[in-house]
Amino acid sequence: MKYLFDCLRVDLSFGTGEIYMSDLIGIKALGFYGGRIFLDVGELAIARGLAPKRFENLLMRRKSLAMPFEDPVSFAVNAAKRVLDTLVSNDKNRIRLLIIASESGIDFGKSMGAYVHKHLGLIPQCRQFEIKQACYGGTAALRMAQAWIASEGRTIPGGGMALVITTDIARPVRYSYAEPSQGSAAIAILVGSDPQLFALDFGASGIHTFEVADACRPTPELETGDADLSLISYLNCVEQTFARYREIVGEVSFTKHFAGLAFHAPFGGMVRGAHRTLMRKLGVKNQAEIDADFALRLMPSLIYCQEVGNVYSSTVFLALAGILDLLANRPGVRIGLFSYGSGCCSEFYSGVVQNDAVETLKINSVSDALAGRQHISVSRYDNIIDSSPSLSGISDATVGRTVAKNSVTDIYDNEFSEKSLLVLERVEGYRRIYSWS
C-alpha cells in the first residue's frame, strides 16, 4: 500500500457508511517539566572516574533530578498544568481521554492517572489509564490518542481532545556509564484535530517487535540489563522499522524525505551510531556525508536531551521538541521519528510541522521550563539519593515539607516555595497525598 503524503483529507470507509475526516490529527500543544535541579555530568564523570573517551560518546552535558518530595505523579501534573493553563473558555472540558505512559509506576493496580486527573481538575467524563512499554510507552499512548480522536473524539461537541503524559523518574545506577544519562522529566501532549504544532501522517508507520532481555526494571528501585544487547536491539529496530515504513508509504528517500529526525535518545552517541548504521545500510558510504547529515537533521534534536538526560517514555518527544525549535518556521516540512522501548517494541513514523508551530512553541517552550534550574555538586547529589526514602510498598510516610526542612531546605525555599508546583506531602494507608508548593 502506498500512502499518499500530499493528501491532507482522508476518506475512511467502514462498509455500512463513509466517515469523512476533514481534519488532521496531531499535537496541539506540548508542556515540559524537568525538575528544578540539575547535575553537571562532566563533574559526575570525574568524580566516578569514568574514562573520558567513553564519557564523551554519551554527548551529555547535564541531567535533571527529582527531589525527595517529587514523584512521577507530581512531575506529570506540573508538565500538564503548563498546557492546561493556556486553554481558553471551557476547552479543558473537551479533554475526554487521559493516558499516562511511564515505567516508573507507583502501584501495581491503581493508575497514576487517577491522581493526575484529580489534581488537574479534569471532568468526570474523562477516560483515564496508565500504559507501560519501557521507553516506547509514550509513542504507544500517542497512537492510542490519535485513534480515539479519529473515532469517538470527533463526536464530542467542539471536538474531543486527549491528554498524553509521559513521566519517569530515574533511580540512578551509580558508578556506571548509564548514570550520567539517567534523567527525570515529564512531557504533556495535547492531542486533537486541527493541530497547531505537529500533524501525524495518517497510516505512515513501521513497527518491529520481538522479545529481548536487553533492559528491565524487575523491582521499582532497580534498573538492569545488558547494554551491548540493548545497542544491538536498537540498531536492528531502527533498520527494520524504517524498512517497514517504506513498505507502507513507498520508496521514499531517507535523506531527502525528512527535513529533520527525532530518535529515542538513551544518550547522544547511541543516536549517532544508529544514524550512521542506517545510512550505510541504505547505501551511503561516505563518512563525511554521514556526519554532515547527522549534524543537520539529528543533532538539533539532542539539544534538550543533552540538558535533561534519558527520560525514558518522554525522550522521543523531548527530541521532537528540539528539532521543532529548528523547523517551526518551516511549516509543511516532514519530521521522521523513531521510538524504541526495551523488551521490545519499536516504531518509525512521521508528521508535518504546522503553520502555528512558532507561536505554539513560544507559549510553552522547553527552554523556558529549563531556565533557572539550580546546579548542585556531586557530593550533594549523592547525599540526596542516600536520604531519599523509597516509597515503594510503603503504607505510611511523611515526605513534603518535613523532608525538605531536614535535607534540602534551601532547594525547597528557592525553587518550590510559592511556585504553585505539585509536591508529594505524605503517604497514608498507601494513598499518596499531594499539595501545591
Automatic annotation (TrEMBL):
Top-level taxon of origin: Bacteria
Family annotation (Pfam families): HMG_CoA_synt_C (PF08540), HMG_CoA_synt_N (PF01154)
Swiss-Prot/TrEMBL keywords: Transferase
Keyword ATP-binding found: no
Segments forming domain Hydroxymethylglutaryl-coenzyme A synthase C-terminal: 285-386
Chain ranges of the Hydroxymethylglutaryl-coenzyme A synthase N-terminal domain: 25-194
SUPFAM superfamilies linked: Thiolase-like (SSF53901)
Name the record gives this protein: PtzI
Species whose genome carries this gene: Candidatus Endolissoclinum faulkneri L5
